[in-house]
Amino acid sequence: MVEDDPADARLVQRAFQKVNHGLKLLRLKDGDEAVSYLAGDPPFDNRLLYPMPEMVLLDIKLPRRSGLEVLEWLRRRTGPLRRLPVVMLTSSRHSVDVNRAYELGANSYLAKPDTASGLEELARSFQQYWTRFNQPPSL
Amino acid sequence: MAVQSIPLPNPSHLHSERIFRKLIDSVTDYAIFVLDPTGHIVTWNPGAERMKGYHADEIIGRHFSIFYPPADLEWNKPAYELKVAAETGRFEDENWRVRKDGSRFWANVVITRLLDDEGRMVGFGKITRDLSERREAEQRYRLLIEQVTDYAIFSLDPGGIVRSWNTGAERIKGYKAEEIIGQHFSRFYTDEDRAKGLPAQMLARATRDGHAETEGWRVRKNGARFWSLVVITAMRDEEGNLTGFSKVTRDITDRKQLLDQVRQHAHELELRVAERDKTNAELEAFSYSVSHDLRAPLRAISGFTAALQEDYGDKLDETGRDYLDQVLQASARMNQLVTDLLNYSRLTRADMELQPIAVAAAVKAALAELDADAQHVKLAIDKRHAVVGHEATLVQVLFNLIGNALKFHEPGKQPRVTVTSERNDGTIAVRVRDEGIGIAPQHQERIFKVFERLHGQEAYPGTGIGLAIVKRGIERMGGSVRVQSDLGQGSTFTLELPAVDGAD
To answer: Among partner residues A8, A92, A117, which is closest to B299 by beta-carbon distance?
Structure first.
């Protein structure tokens, strides 16, 4: 999960903990960090400590490098990394952002629910959809 | 020029040519007579009598110089004419001649040398035509052109040298006739146009196409420029040879300035639109920040409050749990406020693409958002009714109106809401009627303004933006909204939108 807001990050983590079994969520704080992690640059060059994720939850408004820029970078890779499933999770409901995200190759776009119960519902559906029904690509 | 010489044996023989004589005698429009080699009149026809006023008896034998005005006689013009005719075979002239009564007439005169079979000159044939009428017409025409002041009308020879000049030309261009006649017309053009060869191009175009028209800057004598509309027409003689050009120039500087002003205004308008677009883009960025940055702490407040309630609720007493409820309600209200404000500002700015919408479908979509409350709403909507509008906006408007209708009723009473549609002339009216608390007449205008509320949060919660969204949304779609109500009488809100053709 790439999320700069610590409160949002904690609430998302709490919601996922409440509903999921065995899904590990790792948080990165900005766009640059996300790119470094995914590229395996130091300090993230040890994949044993920093394993390659199965998917990315990506906020849009991020310091240093926006979520859309991270997405664009990811889809331009030549290796398997470019197929990494990306789900946008952001407070922006702007059609400009939504359309751009899909154009750049986002696999889904979720608007952050306004309430704790809404977030829990989202976490539950997410877990169901992406871990039970979805066929992941090989990375 | 071909020399027209009629070979004749001798003058006496001429008298015996009866048929020829008859022909000449029947001509009344031309004076046709014969002069002997010294210019004395030998024959006379009815045309000559009619034109000059002399009877044959009194004129035969007289010298033909009698027909000339004194000025011509002074320099012996008659003798000169005979000399030219004798030497070249022909003399033609257009000039004043004098009648018997002393009056003048404008005449076309042709004098032809007459030779006998041996080539000896035996006399002259003289044909005179009275051109007074034609000359008067020409004179009138010339005066007309000369006195025109709004147009510069002048003529050029084939090389572009000015040959005539009217009052309008003097007024517009500033030259007097005597200053400019004989000058090349390219001096009316700007240096740039002259450098580009425009004057020659204009003449070439007129020569090729018959005429050439253009608008452009021209220069007055004093160097000032004026914007002109110019038409150059090629003038040709009967054989099609180019004899010169006529040029008509209008000073349309005023019109041009007016047009430029209009263009300038249009340009300024474009700039302002661009500026407005920029302002809109900034507002868009602003509301983006509002939606993102204002919502984030709200999510944290409500999220952690909910977490507190869930995870530690059993450690609080009832008052403590009620406080948490208050925090949750307040943050929910603030969230609604941010949402409504964003919707309202977006309605103000965003471009709306209008399209046909089925009224029934829009009402259903609004009811779907209202969830459980929708069961209290009765529908009487004609399925054929469709309006021109923006779907998301119409759904939002209906959602707000139906939501209000469900909300504002006496506590403990079941709300009863009816939505109907009706076709009027060119429009569809959608009515949302409730049997709720009603609105006093003095408040009916205020309720459509943003942040206007008639009730406290405890009685009827709300942001005070709902009806402002309704009004602005409907107006952006080219429709109108009005309310009919009184206290305790329920309310009816009527939306009117352009009907889609064919729906009735």
So the answer is: A8
- Please report, in angstroms and rounded to a whole number, the separation of the first and last CA atoms in chain A: 18
List Cα–Cα distances, B406 to B40, B209, B453, in angstroms.
124, 79, 16
CB–CB contact A114 B307 (8 Å): no
Interface of A to B at Cβ within 8 Å reads 5, 7-8, 11, 14, 61, 90-94, 112, 114-117, 119
Asked whether B46 and B28 are in contact (CB, 8 A), the reply is yes
Task: Please name the residues in contact with B56: beta carbons below 8 A apart, sequence gap of 6 or more.
Answer: B44, B49
**Residue B41, CA distances (Å) to B113, B301, B432 in order:** 14, 131, 114
Specify whether the CB–CB gap between B434 and B408 falls below 8 A: yes
The answer to whether A67 and A61 have CB atoms below 8 angstroms apart is: yes
Would residue B351 be called left, alpha or beta, if left means φ above 0 and alpha means ψ between -120 and 50 degrees? beta
Scored b (16 or more CB within 10 A) or e, B8-36 reads: beebeebeeeeeeeeebeeeeebbbbbbb
Q: Which of B116, B221, B208, B91 is nearest to B169 (CA)?
A: B221
**CB-based burial of residue A72 (10 Å sphere; 0-12 exposed, 13-18 middle, 19+ buried)?**
middle
Q: Report phi then psi at B23, rounded to 5.
A: -60, -50
CB contact under 8 A, A91 and B306: no
Separation between Cα atoms, residue B110 and residue B107, nearest integer Å: 10
Q: What is the ipTM of this complex?
A: 0.78
Searching chain A, which residue's CA lies closest to the CA of residue B307?
Answer: A116
Nearest chain B alpha carbon to A91: B292
Interface test with A, best of B293, B301, B302 (most A CBs within 10 A): B302
Write the pLDDT tens digit of every residue in B75-95: 999 999 999 999 999 999 889
CB contact under 8 A, A91 and B303: no
Q: Which two tokens stand for residue B214?
A: 């253009």
**Which chain B residue's Cα is nearest to A119?**
B303
| Cis peptide upstream of residue A43 (ω within 30 degrees of 0) | yes
pTM: 0.49
**Residue B425 region, left (φ>0) first, then alpha (ψ -120 to 50), else beta?**
beta
Q: Tens digit of pLDDT for each residue in B380-439?
A: 999 999 999 998 899 999 999 999 999 898 888 888 999 999 998 889 999 999 999 999
A5: number of CA atoms within 13 Å, CB side?
Answer: 22
